[in-house]
Amino acid sequence: MDKITRAEVKWIKGLQARKERDTDRCLVVEGKKMVGELVELGWSFRFLVATDTEFFSDIPALHHRKCGKDEMSAMSSLESPEGLLAVVDYPDESLYRKVDWLQDLPPGKSFWLDGIQDPGNLGTILRIADWFGFGSVICGPGTADCYNPKTLRASMGSVFRIPVIYASDWPSMVTHHANSILIADMEGIPAEKAPFHQRPYILIGNEANGVSGPVRNTAGIECVTIERFGKAESLNAAISAGILAYASCTPE
After folding, report:
1. CATH 3.40.1280.10 residue ranges for the chain
2. Interatomic CA distance for residues 122 and 144, integer angstroms
3. How many CB atoms are closer than 10 A to CB 84?
4. Where are the beta strands (DSSP E) in 158-200?
5. Beta partners for 47?
6. Which of 15, 42, 143, 251 is the most buried (most CB within 10 A)?
7. CATH 3.40.1280.10 corresponds to the domain 96-248
8. Residue 172 in contact with residue 79, Cβ under 8 Å?
9. How far apart are CA 21 and CA 147, in angstroms?
10. pLDDT tens digit string along 14-50?
11. Which helix H or strand E contains 203, and what residues bound it?
């Protein structure tokens, strides 16, 4: 077992940036729980790095590297690293892909995200999708990277189970599927009366600006709203997603 090199520390630290992850087609996962989930799911490991060699038992990787606490802190995105991280390959297209747009989507309900910028919100929405058995999460331009360290932590492992699709030709994709989409909005059909069975795609807008104008004005789209009883100006994007996911699971 070799000690980690400076070049390897620099490379792993660089993978905190989306550009580097996409270039090398790999991501960093930290902590025993998250790494353990990937072992169970059969993901491909490139590197396993730990401050204690006991972490290496029963975890397959191309390379095992021992490191000190200072080196782990340099590579980690956490304030208090657990002492274990793995570099794993991106999954195949059944779980992650970038496309112009898709005619045929994975079966089942899905969240459509119109520029969700906060990685924590994205991770929470992925976790909600996983809890309620959604088939996918569709991301428009401006949406955070699902492999951002903050997204990984907020998803609590759900990002490893829910297919995530990034679509660059967002208007065309929305137009094609408009009759299946419900936009979360301040006005619209009350959630308890919304036709989720006919419109299984729930579209959540940007945290600050809401749904973009071109999407909102797409012919055939309808809006759904969560009834307000108090004085709050709005709901957090992930909270709205959770409420609407629950509403979509109620019987017709």
Report:
1. 96-248
2. 7
3. 24
4. 164-167, 181-190
5. 63, 87
6. 143
7. yes
8. no
9. 8
10. 999 999 999 999 999 999 899 989 988 989 999 999 9
11. strand 201-205
